[in-house]
Amino acid sequence: MTTHPTTPFDGQKPGTSGLRKKTAVFMQPNFLENFVQATFNAIGGVRGKTLVLGGDGRYFGTDAAQVILKMAAASGAARVIVGQGAWLSTPAASNLIRKRSADGGIILSASHNPGGPNEDFGVKYNMANGGPAPESVTEAIFARTKEITEYAKFDAPDVNLTAIGESHLGAMVVEVVDPVSAYADMMEEIFDFKALRGLFHEGFTMRMDSMCAITGPYAVEILEKRLGAAKGTVVHETPLPDFGGMHPDPNPTWAHELMVEMMGASAPDFGAASDGDGDRNMVLGRGVYVSPSDSLAVIAANAHLVPGYAQGLKGVARSMPTSAAVDRVATALGIDCYETPTGWKFFGNLMDAGRVSLCGEESFGTGSDHVREKDGLWAVLMWLNIIAARGQGVAEILAEHFERFGRNYYSRHDYEALPVDQANAMLNDLRDRLASLKGTQNHGLIVENADEFAYTDPVDGSISVQQGFRILFEGGSRVVLRLSGTGTEGATLRVYLERYVPGPAGLNEDPQEALGPIIRATEEIVGIRARTGRAGPDVIT
Ligand code: G16
């Protein structure tokens, strides 16, 4: 074991989900080591502990895994359970932490951000419950990164991560496991695999775009091997270090190949995509796109049809910028609905306390208390199970849902890579004007209230402030603005637009048209295009 002197790096503050930076930044001498040692220091060391380790297969992942193994060995960890090839999807890592009663885990991923030497890398610490570290822990990690003076590393050759089995690094056991099987077994416990096999047997067709990222092996095992979907159902199924040049973010902009196929004449019955680390999902029917907020609401309304949720949901939770579609379902079901800040980490306490069993976010994240991360393939299987149980396609299910609950038209507009100073100035200016917006009329919409979202965790009482600006208009429409906490280049402004239409008329408009007045009012109030010089958003979901 060698102790290496080091000095702090600026900017090792974890964001919405771990530390994400350009890969080259992570590859600088000591950068990864500092962050890992700071993490170990912040959690009271790893002596005698068991950790889970894996990632989404992106460039630098296996090198980083070797560094972390040697650092864990030098710090006295008892055992590290690693996915073969250093692969683990984020939900599979969460599952392993829970199933193996590990003390925590390290996930190597920048999620939906592109990968490769010129793209992004990331490291995230998860707790013993399998969920992302809460703010109290990420703040402690950040504090340790600022005062670090040394790190410890075990001097040894690299561990063979390609073969399943156990080996040793000093006294520490390195256990290489199949990254897929435990996760696939869990899915088999939750869902009605017999009904799903029947669905595919009767000729149901599906396209699953794994975007050259980690869900490929999981989707092939579950959909094609265990459920009998036709070979070739899963495309881009081999995880590649640069995701084959794809931007593995399952939204209409980046999963455009799937969009084109699903909107085309020979579209399959069902389409889905997932992201770099397998926790996000997008679902589509033939000719129909399901917005993530609507997906959450449909899943909530139909969860009782799925064996794992036959007893009903304990409660639901959504991030604040997510539409209120699920709130209407919760009211109808008579269960609680919680509104949290953006970030899956805020759902953990609610799930651990048994208050909610279903959570979701507008950012293509849906999941339940089967793990403590959002889970892309789980959401896909939820939809398949609901389709099988109802004997209806996506379009019919969605139409009936809107007829029953009304429709929350919803869209997110992203302005990417803005100069940080410009974005901050724009939002600071908005903060200063918030109080005076009330009662003003903009493009025919009257501002009913405007505030900045703050959250008090109902379980542990912790408070999170400055979690996004909300402008609520009379009649129930709203716009939310916040800066992304997951980007690595400049600032990404997210503008979340929502309008509720109760029906029965007006349920089939184009969302961008239905939201037109709110888009125009937002421009009048905030002046995004005027201030940034941008003609429009880079991404529309
Ligand atoms: C992460 C978080 C999510 C969050 C999303 C977007 O997802 O886990 O909870 O909604 O980022 O965050 P932001 O708007 O700050 O970019 P992922 O899939 O990147 O881990």
TrEMBL record:
Magnesium as UniProt keyword: yes
Keyword ATP-binding part of the UniProt annotation: no
Pfam family name, one: PGM_PMM_III
Cofactor: Mg(2+)
Annotated ranges, domain Alpha-D-phosphohexomutase alpha/beta/alpha: 12-151, 182-284, 293-405
Reaction(s) the record says it catalyses: alpha-D-glucose 1-phosphate = alpha-D-glucose 6-phosphate
EC id: 5.4.2.2
PROSITE patterns linked: PGM_PMM
Keywords of this entry: Isomerase, Magnesium, Metal-binding, Phosphoprotein
MF (Gene Ontology): phosphoglucomutase activity
Family from the record: Belongs to the phosphohexose mutase family.
The protein's name: phosphoglucomutase (alpha-D-glucose-1,6-bisphosphate-dependent)
The organism of origin for this protein: Sedimentimonas flavescens
